Amino acid sequence: MEIVHVYTRVRSDFGRPCLFSDRGPELSLDLRPDPSLTQEFIQRTTRDQATQARTDMSEHQVNTERFVTESRGMNHTEGGWPKDVDPNEMEQTIRFRKKVEKDEGFMNSIPQLGSVMGHCLQQNNALDIFQEYCSEEDEGEVVEPPSAKTINIFRDPNEVRRTVTCLSWHPDGGKKLAGAYSCLHFQTSQSNMCEDSYIWDIENPNRPELTLKPVSPLVCIEYNPKDPHTLVGGTYSGQIAYWDTRRGSLPVELSSVEHSHRDPVYKIIWLQSKTGTDAFSASTDGQVLWWDVRRLTEPTERLVLDPGREGNMERALGALCLEYEPTMPTKFMVGTEQGVVLSCNRKAKTPAEKIVCTYEGHLGPVQALHRNPFFPKNFLTVGDWAARIWSEDIRDSAIMWTRYQMSYLTDACWSPVRPSVFLTSNMGGVLDVWDVLFKQNEPTLSVKVCDEPLYCLQIQDTGRLVACGSQGGSATLLEFCSGLSSLQKNDKTLLAAMFEREAKREKILEARQREQRLKERSRSEQSDAGRDAIDAIDAQSVQQLMARAEEDFFSVVEAELRRRDDTHQVTTHITETVRTSYTTVSVLHCVNKH
Questions:
Q1: Which pLDDT value is given to residue 24?
Q2: What is the DSSP secondary structure assignment for residue 407, as one 8-state letter?
Q3: Is the Cβ–Cβ distance between 434 and 420 less than 8 Å?
Q4: What does pTM read for this prediction?
Q5: Are residues 508 and 409 in the same domain?
Q6: Residue 361, pLDDT score
Q7: Are 413 and 427 found together in one domain?
Q8: When you count CB atoms within 10 A of the terminal residue's CB, does the N or C end of the chain come out lower?
Q9: Residue 195 is part of a domain; what is its CATH number?
């Protein structure tokens, strides 16, 4: 890698600039001789006079005390860190610096020390001719209507046009733009479709500066913020490719198929690390993989996006977008196909703890996920016909959202310069610019970029240029006016107050809903208890009725049995009487015969 160190100096250190140029002689004045004046000329007599060119000086001697000079040096070494902080670990030092900077003692002592040090530094300063006086006076703000104009259009040079799936700005000044081209419609790609992606010079839209030749069409691409010569991209086949523009169009490293994603890689982001070679990717196969681009044979770490936190691939949620903030190196967020946003922690001890919480609120796949660069706790999502602004502290619902648009939203991002401005693109080919401090019901500026659906957008770090990729293979470069690309007065303060107010409102609504749920639960419990009492009473009455019915039944049976016994006794008596009478009659009949 090329190591470059740039020394910078203020222009005023060199003095006022001198401008020299070669040019021919110019006649400023031409006085012609006048012969008539010779008659008026009077010649004076010559006279000699001596002059001294130097001034008169006198010599005197003074005996002064000798001043002894001594040279001293100071060696500054890094130290003073606590025992639990390793100076070699950048994450620990950044975290400790933030903790110290928030301390009240630090905030009170720095202005006092700064004033003393500033006085010492300015004692030997010469007069600055470039100093601006009365700089504290506020200039009258010029109210300029929001506007945008098209600068260039970069079209796919192939006959079969492909979708611009991802755009990435060059980190050094944004003079180049890398675009990934792919056809994401399943089984609709043609056999003669090109697989190349391009790096464009924003001043030359006629021909790409460099052609990238991957093994499979690129779905996402990202410049390395630490090394502007290197890029990393995710392919349609699920592989990760790494390029060094100084080595040509072919990838330097390529991951193997068996250790890569199973679906297209929709997002890849560089991580904040010492080496500047770490990245992580997400795909719809439900995995997030961490890579070291110096060795892409297999991922260094793996996370399965299982909401049940069991690592089950069958229940994993497909990832479409990632969000990573370098100031929070252990946290990242994932937008899924199911409309759920997962907040994750990479440094968790167990895989179950890596998925911290979920945010549900979209009707479709989460197409865009972006943290506010000025307020990292608030993030922007797009997953249907509306854009939503969330707070990490509130998980049940968003704190702000736009109304549903006529066209489906495809991408969104915050402005890196103005904290209250964000951009959205939709299927109607329109780029909308929203300023939540100005109005929330409708966009501040709507620009019809093209007649084709817009798929992605990427704004430059200065906030003045934005690139939009369309489904027809064209990348349009637009330039915003100064009102949308420069920080306005009190923007941060007003937006912080708005976010705090909306978050407080949502918390109050959540508490009220929680109380209502508790009341309904208590009512249901009371109704269940009353129903149980009624059921108990009914059960007792039923038991009494059954007992009474049994008593009546058995009494009837006993009465019937008694009646039958009495009838049987009477029948037996009659039978015996008849039998006795019959015997007597038989005896008498026999006597009569004899």
A1: 83
A2: S
A3: no
A4: 0.65
A5: no
A6: 82
A7: yes
A8: C
A9: 2.130.10.10
For residue range 56-94, list pLDDT tens digits in order: 788 888 777 777 888 888 887 777 788 888 888 888 888
User: Is the residue at 58 inside a domain?
Assistant: no
Same domain? 246 vs 317: yes
CA 441 – CA 434 distance, rounded (Å): 9
Same domain, 381 and 498: no
Written as one letter, the residue type at 144 is: E
Q: How far apart are CA 252 and CA 236, in angstroms?
A: 18
Give burial (CB, 10 Å; 0-12/13-18/19+) of 12. exposed
Q: Residue 233 in contact with residue 247, Cβ under 8 Å? A: no
In a domain, residue 547? The reply is yes
Which tens digits make up the pLDDT trace of 303-331? 999 888 888 888 899 999 999 998 888 89
CA angle 469, 471, 473 (to 5 degrees): 65
Helix (H, G, I), strand (E, B) or coil at 531: helix
Domain interval for residue 159 = 148-485
The distance from CA 358 to its chain's CA centroid, rounded to whole angstroms, is 15
Same-domain check for residues 429 and 499 = no
φ, ψ (nearest 5 deg) of residue 268: -140, 140
**CB of 259 within 8 A of CB of 299?**
yes
How does DSSP classify residue 142?
P
Asked if residue 293 lies in contact with residue 306, where contact means CB atoms within 8 angstroms, the answer is no
Sequence-distant (6+) residues with CB within 8 A of 103 are: none
Domain count along the chain: 2
The phi and psi torsions of 269 (rounded to 5 degrees) equal -135, 140
Residues 326 and 450 in one domain: yes
Residue 589, in any domain of the structure: no
**Binning pLDDT at 50, 70 and 90, where does residue 593 land?**
very low
Residue 495 and residue 481 in one domain: no
SS3 for 256-316 is CCCCCCCCCEEEEEECCCCCCCEEEEEECCCEEEEEECCECCCCCEEEECCCCCCCCHHHC
Please check whether residues 526 and 380 belong to one and the same domain.
Answer: no
CB neighbours of 494 closer than 8 A, spacing ≥ 6?
A: 420, 437
Calpha distance 465→356 (Å, rounded): 36
C-beta atoms surrounding 568 within 10 Å: 10
Structure tokens at 587: 């005896």
Contact 180, 196 (CB under 8 A): no
Residue 365's nearest CA partner among 336, 398, 403, 322 is: 336
The answer to whether position 125 is within a domain reads: no
Residue 422: name the closest of 468, 360, 370 by CA.
Answer: 370
Q: Which of 485, 520, 544 is the last residue before a domain boundary? A: 485
Answer whether 466's CB lies under 8 Å from 456's CB: no
- Nearest-angstrom CA–CA distance, 249 and 165: 19
Q: Tell me, what DSSP letter sits at residue 557?
A: H
| Residues 205-221: tens digit of each pLDDT | 889 999 999 999 999 99
**Closest by alpha carbon to 224, among 162, 291, 313?**
291
Distance of alpha carbon 527 from alpha carbon 535, whole angstroms: 12
Tell me if 180 sits within 8 A of 165, measured CB to CB. yes
3-state secondary structure (DSSP) of residue 532:
helix
Query: Taking 50 as the threshold, does the pLDDT of residue 586 lie above it?
Result: no
